[in-house]
């Protein structure tokens, strides 16, 4: 969630959240010492009509709570498990224990690693782990139901304005090209964590808060009304330059903090989430035929998150399960 893309560019009714058209999911992290139980969290998803979830590890109580819920799931492989899954037997056992054992959980994607930097030696483990997990998925005859991918940060793309000029950096290109080839071969999307907040916070002289919050009037000189679309289309442009015109992007995280940093407030975060939920019913300039599958980060504030103070304040809900925002999802 530390992605920074430098773009040099000019009712919640208190009783129920309705996630329109089931396009929006919510990421469920557990880095807090005051959070509800996994069963309570899943019940909160269900009571608010949230039909998609992303989790970051195969937490058994969460998977148990998801049984029969009909909630579509992105299941994460933690970065510190990637190396072990380069062994095919270990990968098969992982799939058997965490997927086949939960036949009444609606798995949709497996995210093999999250924002692994191409310069990190661990990055060399991603593709072998993806291939081994894919083979195990195939053996279980689940390849049409579950797609295997990885989640990247948008900082892997440079020359991102205008978005059509977007290209993966030299170091990222060598890393991502074989992964993209794998996605093409298996008909899988690329998972991308998209954070206009970080771009805005690092580039306030060139990015307005209105452009970051979807509230800008009219388009800029590149034809964009908002930063989210510009970031997303820069990644699409980078994929096209790798010959991967047909790879779809799933926005596997996007959010705005309510405290802890520049522009981080309840008002701004509420505006961002409300407008994002509405916006993803459509498409982007490069990909106008929506909807965009997107996952809001995150379900709860997580007081044990490391990094900047903002990392602790991305929740849609407080740890006591009360909603943080007045949002209309209709």
Explain how this protein is built:
By secondary structure, the chain is an alpha/beta fold. It is built from 9 helices and 10 strands. It has helices spanning 38-47, 60-66, 88-98, 126-139, 170-186, 196-202, 209-212, 227-241, 266-279; strands at 24-27, 52-55, 72-77, 106-114, 147-153, 157-158, 167-168, 190-193, 249-254, 294-296. An 8-stranded parallel β-barrel has the order 1-2-3-4-5-8-9-10. A two-stranded antiparallel ribbon has the order 6-7. Helix 9 (266-279) links the parallel strand 9 (249-254) and strand 10 (294-296). It is globular, with a radius of gyration of 19 Å. Residues 2-22 have low confidence and may be disordered. Its EC number is 3.2.1.39. InterPro entries: GH, Glyco_hydro_17, Glyco_hydro_17_plant. This is glucan endo-1,3-beta-D-glucosidase. Belongs to the glycosyl hydrolase 17 family.
Give the structure's gist in a few sentences.
The protein is 30% helix and 14% strand. With 330 residues, the chain is α/β, with parallel strands linked by helices. Its EC number is 3.2.1.39.
Structural Rg: 19 Å
Strands in their spatial order, largest beta sheet: 1-2-3-4-5-8-9-10
Q: Find the count of extended strands (DSSP E, 2+ residues).
A: 10
The tally of helices reads: 9
What general form does the structure show?
globular
The amount of helix comes to 25-40%
Which band does the percent of strand residues land in?
5-15%
Oligomer designation: single chain
Mean pLDDT: 92
Element-level helix/strand string: EHEHEHEHEEEHEHHHEHE
**What profile does the largest beta sheet have?**
8 strands, parallel, barrel
- Cα-to-Cα separation, first versus last residue: 28 Å
Structural class, by secondary structure, is alpha/beta
**Which stretches of 5+ consecutive residues score pLDDT under 50?**
2-22
Protein name: glucan endo-1,3-beta-D-glucosidase
InterPro entries: GH (IPR017853), Glyco_hydro_17 (IPR000490), Glyco_hydro_17_plant (IPR044965)
Organism: Stylosanthes scabra
Family: Belongs to the glycosyl hydrolase 17 family.
């Amino acid at each position: 969630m530390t992605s920074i893309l430098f773009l040099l560019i000019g009712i919640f009714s208190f009783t129920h959240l309705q996630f329109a058209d089931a396009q929006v999911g919510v990421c469920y992290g557990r880095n807090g010492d005051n959070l509800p139980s996994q069963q309570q969290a899943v019940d909160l998803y269900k009571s608010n009509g949230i039909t998609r979830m992303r989790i970051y590890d195969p937490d058994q109580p969460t998977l148990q709570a998801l049984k029969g819920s009909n909630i579509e799931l992105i299941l994460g492989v933690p970065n510190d498990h990637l190396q072990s899954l380069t062994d095919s037997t270990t990968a098969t056992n992982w799939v058997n224990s965490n997927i086949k054992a939960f036949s009444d959980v609606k798995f949709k994607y497996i995210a093999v690693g999250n924002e692994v930097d191409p310069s990190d030696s661990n990055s060399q483990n991603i593709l072998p782990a993806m291939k081994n997990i894919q083979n195990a998925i195939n053996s279980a005859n689940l390849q049409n139901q579950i797609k295997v991918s990885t989640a990247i940060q948008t900082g892997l793309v440079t020359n991102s304005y205008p978005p059509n000029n977007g290209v993966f950096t030299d170091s990222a290109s060598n890393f991502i090209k074989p992964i993209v080839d794998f996605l093409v071969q298996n008909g899988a999307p690329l998972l991308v964590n998209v954070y206009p907040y970080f771009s805005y916070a690092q580039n306030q002289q060139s990015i307005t808060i209105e452009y970051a919050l979807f509230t800008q009037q009219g388009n800029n000189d590149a034809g964009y009304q908002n930063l989210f679309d510009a970031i997303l289309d820069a990644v699409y442009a980078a994929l096209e330059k790798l010959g991967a015109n047909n790879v779809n992007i799933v926005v596997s995280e996007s959010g705005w903090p309510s405290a802890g940093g520049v522009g981080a407030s309840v008002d701004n975060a509420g505006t961002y989430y409300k407008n994002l939920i509405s916006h993803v019913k459509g498409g982007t300039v490069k990909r106008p035929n929506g909807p965009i599958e997107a996952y809001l980060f995150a379900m709860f504030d997580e007081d044990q998150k490391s990094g900047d103070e903002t990392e602790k304040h991305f929740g849609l809900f407080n740890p006591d399960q009360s909603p943080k925002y007045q949002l209309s999802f209709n």
